[in-house]
Amino acid sequence: MTQKEPITVAITGAAGNIAYSLIFRICSGELFGTDQPFNLNLIDIEPGMSILEGLVMELQDSNFHLINKTICTTDPFEGFRDADYAILLGAYPRNKNQTRKDLLGKNAPIFKIQGKALSLVAKRTVKVVVVGNPVNTNALMTTKFAENIPKENIIALTRLDMNRSISQLSRKLNKNVSNIKNVFTWGNHSASQFVDLSNGYLLEGSKKTPLTQLVEEEWIYGKFQKTNQMRGKEVLLKRGRSSAGSAANAIIDCLKSWIYGTENYVSMGVISDNNPYNVPENLIFSFPCTCKNGTWQIAKDLKPNDFCKKMIKKNVEELVEERRIAFELLKD
Ligand code: NAD
Fold it and tell me: Which letter does DSSP use for residue 94 in this model?
C-alpha cells in the first residue's frame, strides 16, 4: 500500500490549555485517520515557546508514527505555510477588569494578522476553525483579512454549546446522548446564545419522539437555556481553569462533521451570507448546518418559532455591535 502524502495542520495558541488536550488526540489519528501522516505547525507567542519545546518532547516520547515534521514558531507567516487545516486557539485572554470592547480591541489585530498570513501562505482550500474568544467576531475578522480564502472555509466553533445542550438533555431524560438528535444553537458564542430543540427528537430504534413532548416548556425556556449559557463559567469556577477537554472534543466533533459529513443538524458558526433566516450578511453566526463532501450548508427548511425569532434578533444586534467595534478599532 502506498503511503499518503502528509497534510499540514497549523495550531495557534498551541502552548495553551485546549491545545494540550487537542494535539494528543489529533496525533493518535482520531481526526484525520490512522493512515494519514501530517506536519504539525505549532504557533504561539514568545512566552509560549519553552512550553512548546516541552510539548514537542512529549510528542516525541509518545512515538506518534503519523507525525512527519513539527515546527514551533511565533510567526504566523511561517506557521500557516501550506496549511490544509488551521485551528486558531490563540487569543488575548479576558481579565476581570476588561470590558467586551477592550477584549475585541486586543483580539481584532491578532486575527487581522492571522487572516493576512492565512491568505498569503496557506493553501486556498485550507479549512479554518476559530476557537479563541470572542469567537464569532474573531472569525469574522479572519474572513475579512484572508482575502484569498473563501469565507466558507473559515468557521467559528459553536459545537461545544450544542454538545453541552445535548448532555443536559441526556441527564434530564436519563437517555444516552447518542439518542438525542437535531438540537442546536443560534447566534453568538456568548451568554445570549439560544438552544433550539423545537426540531429535536429522541431516537429509540426507529421511533422518533419530539423533545418538546418529553420536557416541559418552562424548563426549555428557563433552566435549560440558563444552564447552557452559564456552563463555561461553572466549569471555570470548579476547575479554576476554563473548559479545555470538552472544547478540544468539540473541535474534533466539528471538524469530523465538516470533513466526513453529517446525518443531522450540527451547530457551526458560519458566514451569514444568503441565509434564509433574515440574519444580515457578513456576520459569523451559529446556524444549524449539514455537511457533505467537505462543505457545509445552512439548514433551509426550518421554521423558527416566535421565541427563537426574538433570540435570533437579540444575537444579531449583539454581533452587529461587536462587528462595529472591531472594525472601528482596526480603521487606522
Ligand atoms: P489558554 O490561555 O490556556 O491558551 C491560549 C494560548 O494562546 C496561550 O498559550 C497564549 O500564549 C496563546 N496566544 C495568545 N495570543 C496569541 C497570538 N497572537 N498568537 C498565537 N498564540 C497566542 O486558553 P485556552 O483555554 O487554550 O483557550 C483558548 C481560547 O479558546 C480562549 O480564547 C478561550 O476563551 C476560547 N474558548 C472557546 C470555546 C468555544 O467554544 N469557542 C471554548 C473554550 C475556550
Answer: P
Atom 6, ligand 1: residue with shortest CA distance = 13
Task: Out of 3.40.50.720, 2.60.200.20, 3.30.1850.10, 3.30.360.10, select the CATH number for domain 7-156.
Answer: 3.40.50.720
| Domain ranges for the chain | 7-156, 159-320
Please give the positions annotated as active site.
Answer: 189
Nearest to 285 by CA among 303, 293, 295, 273: 273
Architecture of the domain delimited by 159-320: Alpha-Beta Complex (3.90)
Quick check: 298 and 265 in contact, CB under 8 A? no
Pocket test for ligand 1, best of 11, 12, 18, 249 (most atoms within 8 A of CB): 18
Q: Within 6 Å (CB) of ligand 1, which residues are found?
A: 12-13, 15-19, 43-45, 48, 89-93, 110, 131-133, 135, 157, 160, 189, 242-244, 247
230: cell is: 452559564
Q: Let me know: does 84 contact 125? Beta carbons within 8 Å.
A: yes
Q: pTM for this structure?
A: 0.97
pLDDT digits (tens, 9 = 90+) for 172-222: 999 999 999 999 999 999 989 999 999 999 999 999 999 999 999 999 999
